[in-house]
Structure formats: structure tokens, C-alpha cells
Amino acid sequence: MARHTYKDFLQQKHKNTNKLGSHKLIILTGPSEYLKAQTCRHIRSKWLSHENHSYLRCDEHTMDDSDFLDLCETENIFEPSPLFHIERLASKTKLLPFLKKTPRASHIKNLILITTKEESISEKVRQEIDRLDGDIINCTEPTSWELTKCFPSIYEDAEIKLNQSAVQLFIDIVGTNLFVIENELNKIALNFHGRTTALTVDDIAPFLGFLKEDSSFGLENHILNFSEAKAQTLMLDLLGRGEKPLSILGLLSAHCRKTLKILSLLKGGESDTEISKALRLPRFVIKSYTKYARQINENNYRAALICCQKADQKLKSAPISAEIILGQVLNIICTAPR
Q: What is the pTM of this model?
């Protein structure tokens, strides 16, 4: 079976939404639930933009193959141009019998839009769709390097625009989940209602002021491996992407307190399992910390925690760059082993 790409999806979607009705049967399949939902919205919007066109969602749970044929063939005088949408249809147990019940393409008088439950459809189902002159849109997630191509369709739905630098910052911080991206863009849109020019990094950075989970994990992981150069580089990268200095300092302070607590429990003879229960942290996290804690000098680490407290005061009052202050804290933390 041919491998489908995000580029294929864009071409199929463009063809169907621009010549809507040329195929009376449209099947949405593929692994991306987001793109299925988005494509349904676009098809529905395009269809309803025409006079006397209507949209009706159908319940697949109560529908049998005779009902499906009735949807295809019946011309409704009250709804002259209906679009019938059947959601999350099982392709093998439901869709295939529905298609087989339909004699030929000429029997499909109304536009039928079907989204499948599965990520792919079988060759038998594909053959039936071809027989009925239907079209298939394979909703395939974009690769990481294709993700920026998704953004125009998502932020246009939110009625805003982002320039390329803002798009890249957004992806770096929010991640690649399309549902999450849409939700976060809608939140940002609330603050820029009516804005016609593209949003910049400076516009969106204040609304993305949180440490991305994998970035915070990466910073902590570099510290646990005494990799000061990598920790310093990631810290500068986070600041460059709009992260608040106090958020990064909060992570460093929490790391120091956690390490000192684990060191204290180790001195008391506690096992990894007992420490895990005491701190309510997973054992795999505790294991990485106990190995690390055994290599550090406790007095140096207490000095590092004091340094964090002083850095907090400096960041809030002194006109010193955050890079210098946080760099000093990281240097003390990463040089704390015996």
C-alpha cells in the first residue's frame, strides 16, 4: 500500500474543497484526528457558504446499509442540497457493507462525507470507493520540518497571523500536538482581536512564558550529568525563546532543594523506594538523583541554594543581565561535586 504524506493530504484537501461536489462521496481516513476534524470544518463551511445548502450529521450507531442507501438516493424537497456527515465509521464492519449496498455512482444524489475510526482503510474498501467514483483524503500528520506549513490554516481559523519567527518560537515552546497548538493559538487570539498585521516574537512571547516540560527535563538532565556547557547553552536558548528568568531560577532552586533532601535521606539510610515514597516521585527519577547526590559536596550545594536566593533578589532589583546571574548559579551547581 502506498505511503501517504502530509503533502498528499494538502493536495487532496485542496482539490476537494475547491471542487466540492465533483465527488459525491468523500472519505476521510488516516492517523491524524486533528486534520480529520479540521477538514470536516472546512468542507462544512465551504458547503454552507452556498445558498440552499445544508449540513446534517448522522448517527452511525443507528444506521444500517439500507439507511445509508436511502441517504444517498433520496432527494429532499426541503433540503435541496444536503451534506450528510457520518462520523467515526468503522471501515471494515460498517463502511464496506454500506458501499457494497450502493449499486453504482449514479445512485449517490447527495454529498456524503464519512470519517473513519481507523488510521487506514483496506484495499477492498478502497476498491469500492473507486467503483462509486468517491475520493479519499488521507489525513497524515506533518513531519517536524513540515509543521510550519500547517500554521496558516490553523492561525487563520483563529483569525490572527504569525510571522515566521513567531511560528518557530511557538513550535519550540508549545510542541507539535496540533490540538494543543490550536488551543494555544485561540488563547493568544483573544488578546489580539482585530489585529490585521502578523504577530511577532515580541507579541507572543509574554503569552508563552512557561518552561516547556522537555526543556526543563533537559536542563535538569545536563545538571545531573555535570554537563555545565550543555546546561549553559540550553539556559541561553530558553531565555532567547522568551522564557522568564525567574522561571528558570525556580527550576534551579527546586533542583537544589530536592538534591539536599535526597542527600539527607540517603544519610539516614533510606532506600530508593523509601525516598520515592517520601518525596512522592517516581523511582526512576530518584535513582538518577541518588547516584548524583552521592557525588556532590553538601556544603557546596547549600552554598548553591543560597546563591539561588541572592539571584532572586538581583533579578528583581539589580540592572544585571539575566544571562550573567543565571550563568553564575549554574556554574556553582555544576561544580558542586567533591
A: 0.59
